[in-house]
């Protein structure tokens, strides 16, 4: 798009600390506060900060699986879950997920969210009551899709 004569121009930068970035963030914060003041006030309260939820499975004196997540407001967000190859298909993933959900519910969570690649674990999460709510095809630019899944916890 060509700018109007004497109007505006677009500049480019290589990082998010470039001049103008703080203003862009400020404008979005101001808009969000005007459009959804209750939510934005909640986010600003210390008791609503994201709380880490990290679980590991130890067997034979070593870690063989783990889950890295956080809870915030009514949501459990699972970032990473993995099990050592030789320990897969033994129920560790299910146990990790169940424990994360149990702890999240104790923290007041009502929902869970996870994203996973099509070659990772969409079937695992579907088998545990999650539903696909979105997909980005070719997420990795190599033909693999990314799925977004949620579950109501209670």
UniProtKB/TrEMBL annotation:
Superkingdom, taxonomy of origin: Bacteria
GO MF annotations, alphabetized: acyltransferase activity, transferring groups other than amino-acyl groups
Residue ranges occupied by any N-acetyltransferase domain in the UniProt entry: 8-154
CDD domains: NAT_SF
Stated name of the protein: GNAT family N-acetyltransferase
Species of the source: Luteolibacter yonseiensis
């Amino acid at each position: 798009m060509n700018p109007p004569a004497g109007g505006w121009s677009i500049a480019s930068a290589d990082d998010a600390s470039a001049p103008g970035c703080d203003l862009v963030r400020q404008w979005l914060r101001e808009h969000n506060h005007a459009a959804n003041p209750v939510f934005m006030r909640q986010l600003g309260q210390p008791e609503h900060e994201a709380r880490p939820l990290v679980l590991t499975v130890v067997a034979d004196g070593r870690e063989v699986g783990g889950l890295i997540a956080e809870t915030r407001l009514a949501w459990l967000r699972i970032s990473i879950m993995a099990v050592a190859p030789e320990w897969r298909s033994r129920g560790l993933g299910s146990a990790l997920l169940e424990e994360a959900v149990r702890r999240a519910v104790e923290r007041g969570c009502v929902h869970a969210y996870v994203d996973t690649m099509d070659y990772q674990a969409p079937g695992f999460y579907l088998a545990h009551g999650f539903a696909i709510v979105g997909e980005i095809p070719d997420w990795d630019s190599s033909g693999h899709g990314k799925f977004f899944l949620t579950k109501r916890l209670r």
